[in-house]
Write a structure and sequence with these properties.
The chain has about 270 residues and is α/β, with parallel strands linked by helices. The chain has 13 helices and seven strands. The strands form two sheets. Strands 2-1-3-4-5 form a five-stranded parallel sheet. Strand 6 and strand 7 (about 250) form a beta hairpin. Helix 3 packs across helix 10 and helix 5 (about 75-85) runs parallel beside helix 6.
Length: about 270
């Protein structure tokens, strides 16, 4: 995985973020040596912990792109990662705040994007979107008919994703958000203090998701970015992306990741 290759492939460009970054950044498409240390549920606190743990291996890094997303502000990464550890058959009990251990041990994060990328052309869009969330199959969504093609399915899926996020925001723990904000500020200041360029980025979203994405979320993220004092790169509505560039409403597939890399290479 990426961590194991840092010593032999020192990066100049580093991406840290959630699964949105994990699926959206393919280092092979960048001319500059690039590392992607992103993974599911990464909050600013988790990004800070990863940087602190692997900083010695990242001395070559000149530019750091941090994801500016609701997960970065509101997630308790360890609580969410514990479920992954259990699913992988790993012991989640020792060192309960040791997120880096769970991240470095999650072997499934090496092959899962390539697995789903390769599967994409083999399924109707409706069935592909079903792969995005095993906890709540799409046939539970009103209006979804598995036996018939329906161009409304991406919109239905996007609506469900936003509703899930709204439920999450309704029960945000102020202490967790405060901790993420504090460590986000600390991480940005530390990186800038070492002479590195820091960019807070939001990646492309599908049209279906953009249409119903609450404006209040964007304002909240903008306020955090202003507080951190780093430049913002908002690519949520970047032209040239279509629904087939996404594996689900907010995660790019291999084709979409290649498009995004071509754009990022010109501005980073």
């Amino acid at each position: 995985m990426a961590v194991a290759h840092l010593a032999t492939h020192p990066p100049e460009l580093l991406f840290l973020g959630s699964s949105v970054f994990y699926y959206g950044v393919d280092p092979r498409h960048f001319a500059r040596p690039t590392a992607n240390l992103s993974g599911s549920y990464l909050s600013f606190s988790a990004m800070h912990e990863l940087w602190e743990t692997h900083e010695a291996k990242l001395a070559s890094v000149k530019t750091v792109v941090l994801e500016l997303n609701h997960s970065a502000l509101s997630y308790d990464t360890w609580a969410l990662a514990q479920k992954d550890l259990i699913d992988l058959g790993l012991d989640p009990t020792p060192a309960p705040r040791d997120f880096v251990r769970s991240f470095d041990a999650s072997v499934h994060r090496v092959f899962w994007p390539f697995f789903t990328w390769r599967l994409t052309p083999l399924f109707h869009r409706e069935w592909l979107f079903r792969l995005g969330d095993a906890e709540e199959p799409l046939d539970a969504v009103p209006g979804f008919v598995p036996s018939k093609l329906s161009m409304g399915v991406p919109e239905l899926y996007a609506q469900r994703e936003v509703e899930k996020a709204e439920r999450m925001f309704a029960k945000i723990d102020p202490a967790i958000e405060a901790a993420n904000r504090a460590t986000g500020r600390l991480l940005v200041a530390k990186l800038q203090g070492s002479g590195r360029k820091v960019v807070l980025a939001r990646f492309p979203q599908s049209a279906a998701l953009r249409k119903i994405y609450p404006a209040g979320w964007t304002a909240r993220l903008d306020a955090a970015a202003k507080e951190f004092g780093a430049s913002v790169l908002d690519l949520t509505a970047l032209p040239g992306f279509e629904e087939l560039d996404f594996r689900d409403p907010d995660h790019l597939n291999e084709k979409g990741a290649a498009k995004l890399a071509a754009h990022l290479s010109t501005i980073l």
